[in-house]
Every structure is written in C-alpha cells, then in structure tokens.
C-alpha cells in the first residue's frame, strides 16, 4: 500500500443512533408483515392450525378429560394458546434461516444499519402474528363457551405475559435458525423442542395424574408455569401471582442465555 | 492516482479450507477491477471481506479509504453489493424490495418511493414492479438485485459473478449498465469466470487461483505477459494441411492443426509472420486465412495455471489436442 489513498468525499455516519436503529427495526418488521398481503395463504397458516387445535382438543378429548367438552375447554384453552404461541416462535427461526440461505441477510448486513435490526425486525413482526393467533383462538373459544372471568385486565395481562414469553422463546429458536443449514431442519429441531416441552406440562392435563418422575419435571417446566399463569389470568381462578412471577423469571432467564448466544452466532458468521 | 479499493495480504480460512492465502488487490477510483478465477478460487470470499461481511484472519483492506474491519460502518455507507446469488426477498414485490432498502438507508417515504420507481424503470422492471419477486425470471431477479445494490448510490460496487446464468442478451445489457455506472464515476469490482467478460469490462485484471493472485495487469498487458500472440494459417486446399503444418512448425515452433483445416502456433516474435509468408509463397501454397492475433484470456489462463478456467464442452482446441 505504497500509494497515497484519497478518501472518497462522503463522510458517512459510522455510528448508528438508537433512534435510527428503532426505525430500521420497524422497517424490517414492515417487510415481514407486508408479505402477508401478497401471500394470503400465510394468514391461513396462522389461522387454520390454531382453530384446528381448539376444535380437536375440545371436542375429541373434552368428554374423557373433564366429563364434557365445555368443562375441558375451561381448562385447556389457555394451554392450547400457549402451545400455539410456542410453535409459532419456530416461524421466526424459519424466516431467519430463509434470509440466511437466500443471501438476503448478507444484503441487509452490507447496509449501514444497526446490526441487530434484521433480528429485531423479525421478532417484532412475529409479535404481530402471535397477537393475531391469540385473538383468533380466544374469540373462537369464547364462542364455544369459554368464560373469561378474569375480565379485560386478566386477558390483557395474559396476552402481555404470553407475548413476553414468546419473545424470549423466539431467541431460543433463532439460535436454531442461525445454526442449521436449511429451513426444513428448523422445523424438525423446533418440533423436537416444543412438542415434548408442551406435552410434559400442565397445558393439557393436570400434572398430578403423571408418574412421579414426570410430575417432578412438569412442576418445574416453564410451560407449566406459563399455562397456569395464562389460565389463572383469563379465568380469574387459581393461583396467579406465583405462576406469573415464575413465567417472567423463566422468560428473563431464557433471554439472558439465548440473546447473547444468538448475537454471538450472528457475529461468528463473519 | 487514488485507489477506491486496496487490499493487502488478505487471508481467510474456513476450518481446513484456505479460501484466501494472502491476496493483494487494488482498484483505481472510477475503474473496473476484474477478479478472474475458476470455481473455488476465493472470489466470493474476497468480495465478502471487502464488503465487510467477513472478517479476514490476516491482512487489511481499505475501501474508500476506510478500513473494512475497524471502520466497517463507514465502508457499508459507501458500497453496494450484488452477491453471487440474487438476494431478493421473494415474497415482496420488486417495488417493495427497493423501497425496503431505500427506507433502511434513511430516505424519507416519498423520496424512497420515487427512487424505487425510477430504478425499476431504468432496469426495465416497471411493468413487473407490482408483482412478487418469486414470479420473476432469473434475469429479472438479477436486475432487481443489481437495482437493490444501487439504491444507496454507492461509490464502490461489488458484483460477484453478475452474469453467470444470463443469456447473451441480458449479459450485454448488464455490461452496458456497468459501463454506464463507471462512466458516472463508480468504482466496480467484478468477479467472473468468463475471460471474455473481464476482457470486455475490466481496466485491470487480477487472476486468482486457489486463494492467490497469480497474475495481474491490464487485459492487454496480461496477454503480452503470457505469450503474446497466436499465428493462424488456413490453406485453401485441405490436402495441403500436413504440408503447411510442417512448414509453420519449422519456422515458428510446435504448431497444432484442427480437423477444420486450421494450423495454429503460439508466437512471441513478430518477425515470424513475414518469414512464414515467404515460405508459403516459395512453396506455392495458397491460403484462405492468415492471421496474427493476441492470445485470448482463456489461453492466458491456461498458461498461467496449467489448467483451464472453465470446463468446456469440446471446442476446436480440444479436438486439436486429440489430433496431435
Ligand atoms: N462459509 C464457508 N465455509 C467453508 N468453506 C467455505 C466457505 N465459503 C467458502 N468456502 C471455501 O473457500 C473456497 C473459496 O470459496 P469461494 O466461494 O470464495 O470461491 P469462488 O471463487 O467464489 O468460487 P465460485 O466461482 O464457485 O463462486 C472454496 O474451497 C470453498 O469451499
Ligand atoms: Mg463465488
């Protein structure tokens, strides 16, 4: 490098201000939501599965589980909502992985934008989708006879808690999305993670019918705490404070562990 | 003279693979640097390092005077990147793809829309602008991808094999676009496996193979450096092919002949041409073709690396080898 270098006469802002980062996150969230406009099937995906789960669980299992579908719905709807929210976090990882394998992430990373904006944009957009599924399931449940005795504050609290937990959880799946080589594998990994997690919890049945060893796990399973908290808040019955606190602690714990891991994996790609 | 890109001793390894084994590159401002190399040579890796997507293990690089590692943000603000595979969001329309980039670059809404529309027009995508990119043909995707990398009006543009997979018409079109950009003062680093492409577009060429620069210079300089010229003689009468082959070999050294009746010999000394003409004349051989041309970059590559740049289907030259 013996020759003199003349700097090109652009003096770009090398540092991205937080406000700009926020706007970039919003722009990227817009990008992930506007797709629905061109691909209405995606809205179907977000709707069909939740509706199916609510109907199947209630009418198929209801009678045997609780004596009547109606009685089971009171117990299971919050659990079904929780399960659906956790499954939906896999979409976040899928989308990230598609961006990664298609080179879109490279294009974004070559722009002078906040490093975390592509990740945050996705998480924020998927919050919107989560909210849609939640409202759909709750609405359908209420039509089927679910009593929201927790009232508006209960429902809002439950929604907030659920979304907070889903955001934390999506960092766990984002790590999967960052590490696997193709989108299909995200689903496989995610399924293996979420399916056992929700079934070994109190989401669908009370943990006290399980064998001792399983029950011991179910009692500490974060999904149990979350399902109990959402159920308590929505139906206005049962203990609420404990499960809510534990859910928040779990969410915080997951975030504290996985956000840095994801960011490290993200940087390691360079 | 000012350099828009300067790289020195770039090294990058992936586990056991050494993708870059000490690469030096320099592109003068407002010119096209062609980085030429076969599959796996390290072209994409070099581009990714220069575009701040990869951190080099060793060496350093300046783009627009900014260090790609320490001042990555500043570099990003002045470069555009069109990767080897079209990186467009398939779910968005062409217009939205460009709008997204424009908004991310901080353009106000109206201006962003206007710029997206203008670029779509320039790249003959105006009609398709409202359609999802997943419905685009390969060539349209490429054009959209290139348009996306131009939204920020980059001073330095990286094009990684921009014409691979394009038909001749689209390829020419893209070449024209690149010439236009350079005319406006943009510096372009373009990687390619096509010798012809480098010859057509590049002011300077760096030939890389297995992570090393094995030759560099202007297209003309390179050709001179490796072997100068090629003498071709085609006798009028096919039965004189043997005779002409023997004569040319005697004067210019080992020549080759093709089934199509062409005798070819690499030559370094321009004086050989008249000598060959005299011999042909004395022997009363009439020729239908007699040319002295510069070696093609393909021949340059062959003599530099000892292997061909791209695996080709049987060409005239291959047949020659079979014949000799
Ligand atoms: N992310 C990666 N992980 C592991 N190896 C890699 C990675 N990227 C590149 N390589 C290896 O580094 C070498 C150079 O790859 P690179 O993509 O830079 O070549 P290229 O010149 O762009 O080739 P092509 O013409 O096929 O695009 C290859 O051997 C490749 O397998
Ligand atoms: Mg490549």
Automatic annotation (TrEMBL), chain A:
Say yes or no: keyword Cell membrane present.
Answer: yes
Annotated ABC transmembrane type-2 domain ranges read 41-269
Alphabetized UniProt keyword annotations? Antibiotic resistance, Cell membrane, Membrane, Transmembrane, Transmembrane helix, Transport
Please report a single Pfam family linked to this protein: ABC2_membrane
Residue ranges of the TM segments: 46-66, 72-98, 119-143, 155-179, 186-205, 244-263
Q: What is the lineage of its organism?
A: Bacteria, Bacillati, Actinomycetota, Actinomycetes, Kitasatosporales
GO terms, molecular function:
ABC-type transporter activity
Q: Which GO terms describe its cellular component?
A: ATP-binding cassette (ABC) transporter complex
| Main location as per UniProt | membrane
Q: Which family does it belong to?
A: Belongs to the ABC-2 integral membrane protein family.
Listed GO biological process terms: response to antibiotic
Q: Where in the cell is it found?
A: Cell membrane; Membrane
This chain belongs to which protein, by name? Transport permease protein
PANTHER family assigned to the protein according to its UniProt record, in alphabetical order: NODULATION PROTEIN J (PTHR43229)
**How is this protein positioned relative to the membrane?**
Multi-pass membrane protein
- Note whether Transport occurs among the keywords: yes
UniProtKB/TrEMBL annotation, chain B:
Q: Which EC numbers does the record give?
A: 7.6.2.2
Q: What SMART domains does this protein map onto?
A: AAA
Q: Where in the cell is it found?
A: Cell membrane
| GO MF entry, a single one | ABC-type xenobiotic transporter activity
Q: How does it sit in the membrane?
A: Peripheral membrane protein
Task: Please verify whether the record's keywords include Ligase.
Answer: no
Provide the family line.
Belongs to the ABC transporter superfamily. Drug exporter-1 (DrugE1) (TC 3.A.1.105) family.
Protein name in UniProt: ABC-type xenobiotic transporter
């Amino acid at each position: 490098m013996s020759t003199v270098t003349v700097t090109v006469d652009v003096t770009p802002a090398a540092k991205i201000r937080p406000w700009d980062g926020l706007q970039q996150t919003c722009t990227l969230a817009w990008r992930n939501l506007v797709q629905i406009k061109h691909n209405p099937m995606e809205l179907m995906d977000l709707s069909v599965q939740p509706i199916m789960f609510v109907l199947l669980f209630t009418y198929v299992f209801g009678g045997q589980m609780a004596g009547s579908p109606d009685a089971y719905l009171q117990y299971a709807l919050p659990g079904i909502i929780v399960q659906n929210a956790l499954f939906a976090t896999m979409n976040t990882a899928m989308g990230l992985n598609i961006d990664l394998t298609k080179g879109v992430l490279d294009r974004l990373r070559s722009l002078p934008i906040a490093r975390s904006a592509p990740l945050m944009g996705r998480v924020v957009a998927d919050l919107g989708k989560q909210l849609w599924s939640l409202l759909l399931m709750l609405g359908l449940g209420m039509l089927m006879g679910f009593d929201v005795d927790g009232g508006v504050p209960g429902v809002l609290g439950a929604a907030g808690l659920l979304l907070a937990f889903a955001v934390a959880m999506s960092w766990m799946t984002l790590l999967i999305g960052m590490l696997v080589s193709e989108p299909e594998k995200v689903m496989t990994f995610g399924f293996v993670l979420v399916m056992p997690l929700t079934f070994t919890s109190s989401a669908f049945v009370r943990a006290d019918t399980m064998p001792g060893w399983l029950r011991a796990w179910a009692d500490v399973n974060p999904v149990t705490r979350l399902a109990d908290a959402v159920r308590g808040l929505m139906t206005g019955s049962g203990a609420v404070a404990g499960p809510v606190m534990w859910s928040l602690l779990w969410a915080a714990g997951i975030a504290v562990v996985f956000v840095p891991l994801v960011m490290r994996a993200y940087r390691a790609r360079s | 003279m000012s350099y828009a890109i300067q790289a020195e001793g770039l090294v990058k390894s992936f586990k056991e693979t050494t993708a870059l084994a000490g690469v030096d590159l320099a592109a003068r401002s407002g010119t096209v640097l062609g980085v030429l190399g076969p599959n796996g040579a390290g072209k994409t890796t070099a581009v990714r390092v220069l575009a701040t997507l990869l951190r080099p293990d060793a060496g350093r690089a300046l783009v627009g005077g900014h260090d790609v590692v320490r001042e990555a943000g500043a570099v990003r603000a002045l470069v555009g990147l069109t990767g080897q595979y079209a990186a467009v969001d398939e779910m968005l329309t062409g217009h939205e793809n460009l709008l997204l980039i424009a908004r991310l670059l901080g353009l106000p809404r109206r201006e962003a829309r206007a710029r997206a529309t203008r670029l779509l027009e320039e790249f003959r995508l105006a009609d398709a602008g409202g359609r999802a990119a997943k419905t685009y043909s390969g060539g349209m995707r490429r054009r959209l991808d290139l348009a996306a990398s131009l939204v920020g009006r980059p001073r330095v543009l990286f094009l990684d094999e921009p014409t691979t997979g394009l038909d001749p018409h689209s390829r020419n079109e893209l070449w024209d676009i690149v010439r236009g950009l350079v005319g406006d003062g943009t510096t372009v680093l373009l990687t390619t496996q096509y010798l012809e492409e480098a010859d057509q577009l590049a002011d300077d060429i760096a030939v890389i193979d297995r992570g090393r620069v094995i030759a560099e210079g202007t297209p003309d300089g390179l050709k001179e450096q490796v072997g100068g010229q090629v003498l071709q003689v085609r006798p009028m009468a096919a039965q004189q092919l043997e005779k002409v082959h023997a004569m040319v070999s005697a004067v210019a050294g080992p020549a080759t002949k093709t089934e199509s009746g062409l005798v070819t010999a690499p030559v370094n000394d321009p004086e050989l041409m008249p000598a060959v003409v005299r011999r042909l004349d004395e022997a009363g051989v009439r020729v239908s073709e007699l040319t002295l041309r510069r070696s093609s970059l393909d021949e340059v590559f062959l003599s530099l690396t000892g292997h061909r740049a791209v695996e080709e289907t049987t060409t005239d030259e291959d047949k020659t080898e079979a014949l000799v």
